[in-house]
Amino acid sequence: MCCDNCHPIGFLLGLPFAILSFLISLVGVVVWIVGILLTIICPCCICVAAIVNLALELIKAPLHVIRWFTEQIPC
């Protein structure tokens, strides 16, 4: 029996890519911390806010990758 949201094959296929995107998200964490410090020092810089938003998307990357892989392969 298979449940509605069960996609084990997609999860297993996406796992190596999720690990790679996890490493990229670690870079996002560093960029986010530096960006937050820069916005505290100089809050008038709009480009720093854009960099912080990009870093947040990098941090969320492993979740996006796993969700995409599990949705692509039917149960």
UniProtKB/TrEMBL annotation:
InterPro entries: TAXIMIN_1/2 (IPR055283). Keywords: Membrane, Transmembrane, Transmembrane helix. It comes from the Eukaryota. The chain crosses the membrane at residues 12-32, 38-59. PANTHER family: SIGNALING PEPTIDE TAXIMIN 1, SIGNALING PEPTIDE TAXIMIN 2. This is Uncharacterized protein. It comes from Selaginella moellendorffii (Spikemoss). The lineage of its organism: Eukaryota, Viridiplantae, Streptophyta, Embryophyta, Tracheophyta.
